[in-house]
Amino acid sequence: QPQIDAQSGELIGAETLIRWLDPIHGLIPPGRFIPLAEETGLIQPIGDWVLREVCRLLCRWQAQGLRRIPIAVNLSARQFKQNNFIESITGVLAETGVEPRLIELELTESMLMKDVPQTTAKLNQLKKMGFRISIDDFGTGFSSLNYLRHFPLDVLKIDQSFVRELFDEGAALAIIESIIALARSLGMRTVAEGVETAEQRAILESSGCDILQGYLISRPLPEAEFLEWVQHYNHS
Ligand code: C2E
Ligand code: CA
Ligand code: CA
Predict the structure, then answer these.
(1) What tens digit of pLDDT does each residue of 13-70 get?
(2) Which residues are bridge partners to 228 per DSSP?
(3) Would the CB of 159 count as within 6 Å of ligand 1?
(4) Residue 17 alpha carbon to ligand 2 centre in Å
(5) Dihedral sign, CA of 33, 61, 231, 203?
């Protein structure tokens, strides 16, 4: 799914969202199988596969002379927690020769707040390797603002529930503005997720949100359709 710069409208990144194509049931959304994959441990090979596919995609785009944009990858708690996580991610990168700066790792607040010393060490290592790090669904979990300051984070992703409720209740806008202010003062950027209407876009833009993602810009697309979308996308 594309991500655009809120001010210029320019395409500046994308997020990978996995689907399972079943011969009988068609496309199965991640909400239907990721929790089970977490439970059974299958999330580890699946997560490795996603990362490898993203790297291969970036290589293909480079070979085709396309502009390479950073791609965000969702990490699951179990994947991040595994002892050899850094090794396995390093392995995939070495295999494909992709630069880590083109990969943004999305974690959730609950993943970060568990075992803070070890998490900090892992994040610092990933950051040193050149990955970008973002917090997904920000504002819905329990973040300690004190720890936020110490983690090497690049992006806060404002949860879509706040965007959805922007015009239903004043509190949603207040929360969004606070997240943007917090991110700014800590030197991070903000992504608003679930942007569906021009009204939401306008208010997010004027609130100083950096990046927009949502159906208004584009639904999540398979690679070929994504590339077609990029070709025809006329930002204004
Ligand atoms: P998420 O990371 O918060 O992803 C955003 C979800 O919102 C996606 O649902 C996306 O399709 C949907 N979305 C995007 N724009 C809009 C919009 O404008 N309106 C609405 N209503 N929804 C929008 P999706 O693709 O079903 O993914 C659900 C969750 O599954 C993701 O939530 C993420 O937590 C997880 N997931 C997806 N891919 C992966 C993966 O490769 N690995 C892991 N571990 N989790 C994944
Ligand atoms: Ca995400
Ligand atoms: Ca999210």
Answers:
(1) 999 999 999 999 999 999 999 999 999 999 999 999 999 999 999 999 999 888 889 9
(2) none
(3) no
(4) 8
(5) positive
- Which of 3, 15, 17 to probe ligand 1 with, by most ligand atoms within 8 A of CB? 17
Q: Which amino acid is at 36?
A: L
pLDDT digits (tens, 9 = 90+) for 117-155: 999 999 999 999 999 999 999 999 877 888 888 899 999
Q: pTM of the prediction?
A: 0.96
Ligand 1 near 76 CB (within 6 A): yes
Alpha-carbon distance of 122 to 119, in angstroms, equals 5
Please give the Cα distance from 58 to 62 (Å, whole number): 6
Distance from the alpha carbon of residue 15 to the mean position of ligand 2, in angstroms: 7
Question: Which residues are CB-contacts of 18 (< 8 A; sequence separation ≥ 6)?
Answer: 30, 34, 46, 50, 74
